[in-house]
Write a structure and sequence with these properties.
30% strand; alpha/beta; disordered N terminus; single chain; 27 strands; 412 residues
Amino acid sequence: MSGSSSAASTFVIVGGGLAGAKAAEALRDNDFDGNVVLFVAEEHLPYERPPLSKEYLAGKKVLADFTVADAAWYRDHHVDLRLGTEVTAVNPGDHTVTLPDDTTVSYHKLLLATGSASRRPPIPGADAAGVHYLRTIDDAAALDSVLTDGSSLAIVGAGWIGLEVAASARQRGVAVTVVEVARLPLLAALGAEVGEVFARLHREHGVDLRLEQTVEEITTSGGAATGLRLGDGSTVAADAVLIAVGAAPNIGLAEQAGLATADGGVLVDASLRSSDPDIYAVGDIASAPHPLLDTRIRTEHWANALKQPAVAVAGMLGKPAEYAELPYFFTDQYDLGMEYVGHAPDYQRVVFRGDVDKREFVAFWLDADNRVLAGMNVNVWDVLDDVKALIRSREPIDPERLADTGQPLTTG
């Protein structure tokens, strides 16, 4: 496109996940009639990632079910979709991006939606056959092929991906061992009170949960993984190994371009604009000040990829906008379905409302003043709006009233 169109009429989107696709959609929905170029590193049309560890591995959905739009949509909306093309450099000085063949594409505004990559810890044996990560549909297809009835899987990490895969694998008749360095699953995300709920859930479904354990080595034979050797000297035999120890935001392009970054994220304002006025960032990489929570937040949640692009596009088009959505995520594991909303890194206590043993409850994370920082509904539905209202009110609430299912979910 360099040389064939004016930079003043070209908006470039780098990153072909849900966020990139929603940005292209938002541009056309806002009647932007210039050129839209969407660079997708994978060979697949943009798709949503949560189903990879949920419905896809459970056999409930195929790729087409969670592809954001079909090829005809991009063609009909005149989006220049470049599959299998990874941008190698961003050049803010001359408003271009560089491609693998050293050609350049000019832009007027640029949106970075580069997402994350699986963290790859330096564990001996990690390069053996049979060692899996889960970030892309190709990763999921490879993992799907080994989750056969009667086989065994060792999972390193008891975060969301690890536990969702464990649930899908158990439901397919796979023997599952999960190794986690923390004392409980999801400890960093949810704290001990609710982490215990997930520990019980997985043990009840036959998962061998090895907590407070390090992985010293992935054992191999003939170049293929055979299991794990743990820090206490014990071993785990497995036909396949999944390493699920978190995600690393892809901020290499932003750093190369000289954008302000910190703590693994691209620093953006509430409109999602970076330190360069013509470059915006959304999704996993965006570290944005939250107008309600009075702190800067970067989360790797599906909801951000879905909703942030509309705000960034408004800014790119010169319209006032700010991202004020509360952080939100969800999970499905066995018979447990839940939604979490809010942000509670420094909570003081957790209040449960409902029956924790039956896994039908709402949990609330409170600060020292008994204000609700976050809430999670487990197999209890139609309460999310009430939970959001409690968080947004910033008003103290009596914990006993909060725990009483006979009382309404209000501060008054």
